[in-house]
Specification:
This protein is mainly alpha-helical. It is 56% helix and 4% strand. The protein folds into two domains: 2-85, DNA polymerase, domain 1, CATH 1.10.150.130; 112-287, hpI Integrase, Chain A. The protein is built from 13 helices and three strands, in the order αααααααβββαααααα. It is elongated. The N and C termini lie far apart (59 Å).
């Protein structure tokens, strides 16, 4: 099965053009399934629907979250669809197996006051503080995913139009930058980044103290540090800033379609989750303005 998994992952990378993170998730799920089959002396090409159900029960028993089990099933299903298409197996044992229902969790968000407190923590007194100030302001101003932010190059930012172009493997979107974010970014790009960067060939927008592209882990550590400095008790991750960005836009009158575009959601149903955070003021405006409210 090792060779089949390798071919499958290569197919996802080349033909489906999946992102690195998505590809890693598929690889992790399929390898975990392969390990289970080996431990139970099961032939991947001959297993039945009952075997897959047993595996899903096994994941539940070892404490895997419903969302993880659902994703694992999706990965295994894709693997067998690929194998059937390439005539490596006769039938797909995942057919007609329903994924466990995943409860929709309410996104964690920060209040406007908490955002203000967090963003005021980095001090523009040294290179690191200048960079961190720009980075936190940027994350809240754009609502971009952490992977998207650390993948940005200097050329993706347009100072004149106060915007940034976010590129993924399949599409791109342009997001405006607010005045405070733009000011902090210019300060970083002009005064801090040129000193931090040791290699003139380095294109990354946000770099670490060694002048190399910042990592996801590095980004998380920075946010955690300033959360503690601000004495905020809520758990804060880069995604919390993304949720807060969308929620505050909605609360201040932005329409869902615009927020969907800025977040890069392919389906507006993903954006509609923020509707539950609308404050009473917007609801009152709606009731007064809409003819059928």
């Amino acid at each position: 099965m090792e060779k089949q998994i390798k071919n499958f992952l290569e197919f996802l990378k080349v033909e489906r053009k999946m992102s690195i993170n998505t590809l890693q998730s598929y690889e992790r799920d399929v390898l975990q399934f392969d390990k289970y089959l080996n431990e139970n002396r099961l032939n991947y090409a001959k297993i039945k629907q009952e075997d897959v159900k047993e595996y899903l029960n096994h994941l539940k028993e070892i404490g895997k979250k419903t969302s993880s089990i659902s994703r694992s099933l999706a990965s295994i299903r894709s693997f067998y669809q690929y194998e059937v298409r390439n005539k490596k197996v006769k039938q797909n044992p995942t057919e007609n197996i329903q994924a466990p229902k995943v409860e929709k969790h309410i996104p964690s968000i920060l209040s406007s006051e908490e955002i203000e407190l967090l963003l005021n923590q980095p001090k523009d007194i040294d290179l690191k503080g200048t960079r961190d100030k720009a980075m936190l302001e940027f994350a809240y101003a754009t609502g971009m995913r952490v992977t998207e932010i650390i993948s940005l190059n200097v050329d993706d930012v347009n100072i004149e139009t106060a915007s940034v172009v976010c590129k993924t493997t399949t599409k791109q979107r342009t997001i405006p930058l607010g005045s405070l974010s733009l000011k902090a970014l210019i300060e970083y790009m002009e005064k801090a980044r040129p000193i931090l960067v040791k290699d003139e060939e380095e294109k990354a927008l946000f770099v670490n103290i060694n002048g190399r592209r910042l990592t996801r882990q590095g980004f998380w550590k920075i946010i955690k540090y300033y959360k503690e400095q601000a004495h905020i008790t809520k758990e804060i991750t880069p995604h919390v800033l993304r949720h807060s960005f969308a929620t505050h836009l909605l609360q201040n009158g932005a329409d869902l379609k615009s927020i969907q575009t800025m977040l890069g959601h392919s389906d507006i149903s993903s954006t509609q989750v923020y509707m539950q955070f609308q404050d009473d003021g917007i609801k009152d405006i709606y009731k007064k303005a809409h003819p059928r409210a």
